[in-house]
């Protein structure tokens, strides 16, 4: 095994998760952070249950659930705040055993992850440490130059250093714009007593005053509104202007904790890898927030990358495995970023004439497969066909590239979730005459499918067997 650590640049949620995932695979990680302490600014507020699979594999799902709140879904309102449509999310146990959607205050998640990093013997956090150069060596390892002159050698480098990524710049990757940038005001609020609002995301579909309102967690709420031409954050946050905008949500008495202008960008990197330097999270993509997928995309990036990097740096796989990172994550990120921009435009764009169009489009959502899957079930698009995703045959087309449900199972009389018995390698689930079998880690076991969810899922995919990758993505089905 290589003695060199993997260097993860950026100790935000994506970088910390990457470090924990690698450490759990026995890899030493040096986590570098430019800032001496996490920034005290709230950012992401939403994660779906697919992204939670990554936090669970990093060992922090229960702690995340303790600081988050189940979210009821997305409600579209007209200018008069009448409900146009509602896309519900299961606040109980969805197909992965958790609420389908959760709201949280990002600093709470960062505290959970930093505490896990501090507990992880294989992870060393160095902050402040600023990367200034990356040089590939003949043996494919990477020399990382730090501000101040220090140099260190890494088996691989993961650039999880955010929107203004130094690693991206050093690899020569460029962001490609997929939709026009959009200026919004984002206001974080705290209310002295709980507000009587529906516990989901409210999207006001009024082109003249497009707005979003959502309970976050505890006493925290968020309000967002588009800055129209010439509008400024300062003008809109004047109490006499802001209060009437908050009043329909009962939030006019709330304390403004922070108000900032944000430019929502829809961008994806044109390359995700140079040698053993790989990009993930906001370093690789920026998305408008309308489907709440910014952080989820980043967590999925590192969930699908960590096992590949671990395999390559321990000599278990050829470097070519790393080609699949951008090949898989690029199309997935582009699909979701485009979907977010499209949904944002449909919900908030156009002029007065857009109102009937919006109603017609809403009625048609169910006929666009990717939108329908997202709207009704919060499922993100499957990974495209590639060396690790065999979408051949009817079952492969239905199931390969999607996540296997984290169903309730009983093995040897013990009830648990599927992930608890899948192990850290490739696994095969199959319907045999004796029942459902799992082959993982060289062991074959009979699974009792407690709720019948796995059998139903296989049946829905017309499959009798699936091969599941270490990141819980179905590799092949038949
Ligand atoms: O569709 C969902 O489940 C997420 C909706 C969402 C979450 C966070 C912000 C936002 O604008 C929409």
TrEMBL record:
What's a Gene Ontology MF term here?
Answer: 3-(3-hydroxyphenyl)propionate hydroxylase activity
Instruction: Share an example GO biological-process annotation for this protein.
Output: 3-(3-hydroxy)phenylpropionate catabolic process
Cite the entry's keywords alphabetically: Oxidoreductase
Chain ranges of the FAD-binding domain: 4-339
**Pfam families xrefs:** FAD_binding_3 (PF01494)
SUPFAM superfamilies named among the record's database cross-references: FAD/NAD(P)-binding domain
InterPro entries linked: FAD-bd, FAD/NAD-bd_sf, PheA/TfdB_FAD_monoxygenase
Q: Where is the signal peptide?
A: none
The name on file for this protein is 3-(3-hydroxy-phenyl)propionate hydroxylase
Organism of this sequence: Geodermatophilus nigrescens
Q: What is the lineage of its organism?
A: Bacteria, Bacillati, Actinomycetota, Actinomycetes, Geodermatophilales
